[in-house]
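User: I'm new to structure prediction. If I give you an amino acid sequence, what do you actually give back? Let's try with this one:
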Amino acid sequence: MHDPNSGKTLQESDEIVKYLFNEYGDGKVPLLLRLGPLTTLSTISGQLIGRGFSGAKVRPNTQPKEPLEIWGYEASPFCLQVREVLTELEVPHIYHSCARNSPKRPGFEAKWGVGQYPYIEDPNTKIAMFETPEILKYLNETYGKK
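Assistant: Good question. You get back a string of structure tokens that encode the predicted 3D arrangement of the chain. For your 146 residues, that looks like this:
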């Protein structure tokens, strides 16, 4: 992870979580995120049970010249599906988190007239869209190798 606000670059998950809570939160990392290897094991178990390692393996891909932008929130299974495909295809992207009660949501909704997530913009093709199935189809057709 690279934080453009501070210039700091971190590699390890535990370091990243601690840094984010210290830099942008109240400094208190929740217990479930402080368990080190136990957190990793629970995450892997959940991934296996829930989605069968979706997003964990790179697929042949074509790289865009500019990063895509996606608006979504972590708790959304629809946003997760889009992020998994972006990861599998190694498509560089900028993620705009718009969690519920986020101060970013009203600006998003005012700009696009709706509070629907995920939303994606591709500056390479000038495509912008909502709807997870259409986004997944677009990503696979545009950036997945045929």
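You can read the tokens as a compact description of the fold. Here is one thing that stands out. The mean pLDDT is 84.
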